[in-house]
Amino acid sequence: MFFDRPEFGSQAFLVHIQQDDSTPEELNELTLSAGLIPVGGIVARKRNPDPKTYIGSGKLEEIKAQAQEDEASLIIFDQDLTPTQERNLEAFLECRILSRTGLILEIFAQRARTHEGKLQVELAQLQHASTRLVRGWTHLDRQRGGSGRGQGAAIGITGAGETQLEADQRMIGDRIKNVSQRLQRVQKQRAQNRRSRQRADVKTVSLAGYTNAGKSTMFNRLCESDVHAADQLFATLDPTLRELQLPIIGKAILTDTVGFIRQLPHGLVDAFRATLEEVKQSDLILHVVDASSEERDLQMKEVGLVLEEIKASDVPQLLIYNKIDLLEEGPRVDRDADGQPTRVWVSSLTGEGIPELIEALSQRLSHDVVEPWLKLKPAEGQLRSALFDLDAVLEEEVKDDGMIYMHVRIEEHRLNRLLSRFSSS
Q1: Which of 70, 217, 373, 390 is 20 to 30 A from 235 via CA?
Q2: pLDDT in tens, 349-407
Q3: Is 33 exposed, middle or buried (0-12, 13-18, 19+ CB in 10 A)?
Q4: pTM score of the predicted model
Q5: What pLDDT was estimated at residue 110?
Q6: What is the helix, strand, coil percentage profile of the chain, to 5?
Q7: Cα(425)–Cα(397) distance, integer angstroms
Q8: Residue 175's closest CA among 243, 111, 124, 238?
Q9: Nearest-angstrom CA–CA distance, 240 and 256
Q10: Could you tell me if residue 236 is left (phi over 0), alpha (psi between -120 and 50 degrees) or otherwise beta?
Q11: In what order do the strands lie in the sheet with 404-408?
């Protein structure tokens, strides 16, 4: 059978399969984020997908007619399709087909900037492509094998040789192995960095949330950084770590990771395992929520599912209800029965609620906080400097004899460590 894949273009016709946890608006946003142009669309309902084409022949005829009328060069399905379904759909619709996973991979490929990010995306693309190599190659004949000089050549018993498909499978398999090994080295380096932070008692906080919830804007606001942030899905892809100064705690590390989305492809979760390991190993997760979204509860549920998949659901969380500038809400901190912060209402865009968030962060990360008065000798300048570095000094008095009295708020174990290291008494 001869089968050539249709040309790939930028004019996209969208097929939204209606389900309880999906919206056509999200498919449209994903399409725009990939740099494609939605020219039309249709909503289909399918409880039991057809194993050959996912949807029935009647709806396919309707899609084909509308896509041709809209001059679409690409049809995007808001569901994962099997390789067989994609191939059959392209043959019937005479148009290039892209599934939800393929669309998200396309966006990720465009967004990756760092070496690690590019490796992770390449691995996910290779794993996705490895199951679809049969597509577009069915017209190729077998390559003749054997040189004609080996055993059995005299009587014509040479092997049929390697098909183009088998050659491609072998090359992709070799590339997957190579990229995986390089990512393993990245993972080892990250693990080593985490151990160094743990030995230095440096707390790690990870941002997690649905894509476009405002994580990167929050990251920039907290760390005074310049990570790329935009009002689009997956605007930021590459993992970023920055230092964050907190009261009582002192230096902490804030990690920004890839945003989550409904039906996040498993291949992407596996490929980004090294990055997502930062979330799993963090001391606290800041779960950033778009408080203005009508899909807020659904998005929070999807983030919870991904955290469960990467085995990070047991890490303590602090909910951050972001974008209050779009609501009639002021900044506030909601607390549990023990007085611990559980939810902070902020606007990362305007900065409303950020001071309350920083205080809440310190409360959630600190333990056994004490507020003693310390008496320091003039020679104990290093201890005094260390206390100021931790932002632990509430009040300071210098007496005429040079003695320094400091009222501090600090975790008891940190104070004991500082005293044993710097105190001369």
Answers
A1: 70
A2: 999 999 999 999 998 988 878 889 999 988 888 999 988 888 888 999 998 888 999 99
A3: buried
A4: 0.71
A5: 81
A6: 40, 20, 40
A7: 19
A8: 124
A9: 5
A10: beta
A11: 373-376, 404-408, 393-398
Predicted pLDDT at 155:
45
Q: Give the whole-angstrom CA distance, residue 70 versus residue 274.
A: 42
- Give the model's pLDDT for residue 348: 93
Residues in the chain with pLDDT values less than 50: 1-5, 135-142, 144, 147-148, 150-160
Q: Give the Å distances, CA to CA, from 364 to 214, 249, 338, 359.
A: 22, 10, 12, 9
Q: Where are the alpha helices (DSSP H) in 224-295?
A: 266-271, 273-280
Return the H-helix or E-strand segment holding 395: strand 393-398
Give the separation between CA 97 and CA 18, rounded to whole angstroms.
18
Closest CA to 423 of 389, 371, 386, 373: 386
Strand ranges across the sheet with 341-345: 240-246, 250-256, 203-209, 284-290, 317-322, 341-345, 332-335
Q: What is the pLDDT of residue 23?
A: 76
337 neighbors 378 (Cβ within 8 angstroms)? no
Give the closest residue to 109 by CA, choosing from 101, 121, 127.
121
Task: Indicate the helix (H) or strand (E) that contains 380.
Answer: none
* Nearest residue to 50 via CA among 59, 41, 42: 59
Q: Which two tokens stand for residue 318?
A: 């602090």
Three-state SS annotation for 354-369: HHHHHHHHHHHHCCCE
Instruction: List CB contacts of 61: < 8 A, sequence separation 6 or more.
Output: none
Q: Beta-carbon neighbour count of residue 102 at 10 Å?
A: 20
User: Residue 86 carries which side chain, given as an amino acid letter?
Assistant: E
Q: Give the DSSP per-residue string, 190-218.
A: HHHHHHHHHHTT-EEEEEEEBTTSSHHHH
Q: Residue with structure tokens 């892809």? A: 237
The arrangement of strands across the sheet holding 11-17 comes to: 37-44, 11-17, 74-77, 96-98
Conformational region of residue 311, where left means phi above 0, alpha means psi within -120 to 50, and beta covers everything else: left
Strands 369-370 and 410-411: antiparallel
